[in-house]
Amino acid sequence: MQNAAAPARDAADRPAPVLSVVIPIYNEQEALPLTVARLRPILDGMGISYEVVGIDDGSTDATPMIMQKIRQEWPELRIVRFARNSGHQAALTAGIHRAYGAYVVSIDADLQDPPEKIVEMYELAREKNLDIVYGVRGDRGTDTFFKRRTAGVYYWLMRKLVGKNMPNQAGDFRLLSRAAVDALKSLPEHQPVYRLLVPWLGFSSGEVVYVREERVAGSTHYPLSKMVRLALDSITNFSASPLRLATWLGLLSFLVCFCLAIYTTLQYAFGSTVPGWSSLFIGMLFIGGVQLICVGLLGEYIGRIYSAVQARPAYFVGYDSAEDTAAADRDQRVSEYAA
C-alpha cells in the first residue's frame, strides 16, 4: 500500500504517452463497459500514444473485476485502486498526480460528458499552444430544474470569488498540459477543488462547448449533500469571505442593538415603560442567531486548519497496475542480463 504523497514511478522507463485520460470510478459496473466501448475507438483513432488511468475509488460492486477483465483486452488501461472510498476530488488528485502523459484529460465514467470532445480539446491545445482547455456545458437540458438552478448559483458565486477567469458551467471535464499538471502538483492543497484551482493558475486557456447528456446507466453519485459539501469546500478553501461576512453580521447586530437601546431610552424618557417582551425576544433571537452563524463559520475554518496540521493523506493507493508492470519488466531485463 502506498501513501498519497509517494511519487508515481515511471513505468519501466518507457516513453511517456502523449495523452493520459483520467477517469474517477466508483460503483460503475453498469456504465463502465458502455464507457469503454465508446471511448476506446476515439482514442485509437487519434493516432497518438495514450493511457487511460482508471481510479477505482474503493468500489464495492463488481467494478474492480470488470476493470481487470477490460485491461486484459485493452493494455492501455491502467488501474489505480484506492484502499477505501476517498471521494471524487481525491480520485481526481490521484489521477492527475500519477498520469504520465504530456496532456491529461479528466472525464467521468457516466458519459454525461461526451468523450468525442477529447479530440477537439487536444487539437485546440496543440493548435493554439494552450495549457488548459475547459469543457463547457452549453446545454444542461438533461439535468433537473433544481440542479440547473443550484448549479447556476454555484458558478455565479464562484466567479465572484475567483474572478472571470473561471468559465461559466465548466466542471471537471478538462484538458491540462504537463506544465499545468506540474503546477497543480506543486500546490500544498489538502482538499483541492479543481474547478477553482485550475482557473486560479492563470495559464493560457480555451473552451470547448458541448451538450451535457443523460447518465448512460446507474444512478448519480453526486446527491444534494455532496453538492452542498462541494460548494462549502469551494468557498472555505478558496476565500476568507465568510469570515468577513461574520464581521459584517456582528456589525449589523451591534447597530440593531444600538437602535434598540436608543428606542428604549426614549420610551423611558417619555414615560412609556410598559414591558415589551416581543422586541426583547426578537432581539435575543437575532443576536443569538448571528453568534451561532459566526461560531459555525469559525469552526469550519478551524476544522480545516486542524485537518491540515494533521497532514493525513487524502487517499491511499492499494494497487497501481503500471507499477506492477514496471516491476515485472525490470525483473525480466535482469533475468535476461544474468543469463
TrEMBL record:
Keywords: Glycosyltransferase, Membrane, Transferase, Transmembrane, Transmembrane helix
Location relative to the cell: Membrane
Gene3D superfamilies: Spore Coat Polysaccharide Biosynthesis Protein SpsA, Chain A (3.90.550.10)
Pfam family, one: Glycos_transf_2
Superkingdom of the organism of origin: Bacteria
Spans through the membrane: 245-270, 276-298
Transmembrane helix is among the record's keywords: yes
UniProt topology in membrane: Multi-pass membrane protein
Family the UniProt entry places it in: Belongs to the glycosyltransferase 2 family.
PANTHER family in UniProt: PROPHAGE BACTOPRENOL GLUCOSYL TRANSFERASE HOMOLOG, UNDECAPRENYL-PHOSPHATE 4-DEOXY-4-FORMAMIDO-L-ARABINOSE TRANSFERASE-RELATED
Protein name in the entry: Glucosyl transferase
Taxonomic source organism: Streptomyces nojiriensis
